[in-house]
Amino acid sequence: MPSATLNKFGYPMTLVAETTHWAVLVRPEQPTLGSLVLICREPVTAFGEVSPAAFAEMGGVVARIEALLRDFTGYAKINYLMLMMVDPDVHFHVIPRYEGSREHNGLSVPDAGWPGPPALGTAVKPDEAALKDLVATLRARWAGLPA
Fold this sequence. Notes:
Elements: H1 4-8, E1 15-18, E2 22-26, E3 36-40, H2 52-73, E4 77-81, E5 91-97, E6 101-104, E7 107-110, H3 128-143
Antiparallel strand pairs: 1-2, 2-3, 3-5, 4-5, 6-7
C-alpha cells in the first residue's frame, strides 16, 4: 500500500524509478525543470528511523538522480530539501538549480529563486500531457543510466 506522501505526489503516474527502499517521482509542481521527490518506501516519519539498508541504498539512488538531472537540465547546483511539515513520511524535494530557464518540449521553467533559495511558491504546474511527457522522458533516461 503506497504511503500518503507517495499518493500526494502522484504515485504511480509520476514514478521515474523505484528501488527496494526508495521511490523517485517527478514533482507535479516544478520550481525548476526536472524537480523530483525522493521518498523512502519504509513506514518512517523521522530520518533517524530509516533502516541501515535504506541508508546504504540511498547513496546509489542519489548518484543516479544527479547523473539524470545533470544530463537533463545541466544544473549548476542541486538542492535537497527535507521539509516534512505537511507530508510526514521521510522524503526529499530534489531541486536542480540553474540561472535562467530550461525548456522541455514546449514547457519552460525558470529558476525564479536563483541564486538564492528555491522559489517553491512560483512553481510551474505542467498540464497532464506535459507532466506525462516529462515523466516518460525521465523514466527512459533513468533506465539508460548505469546501475
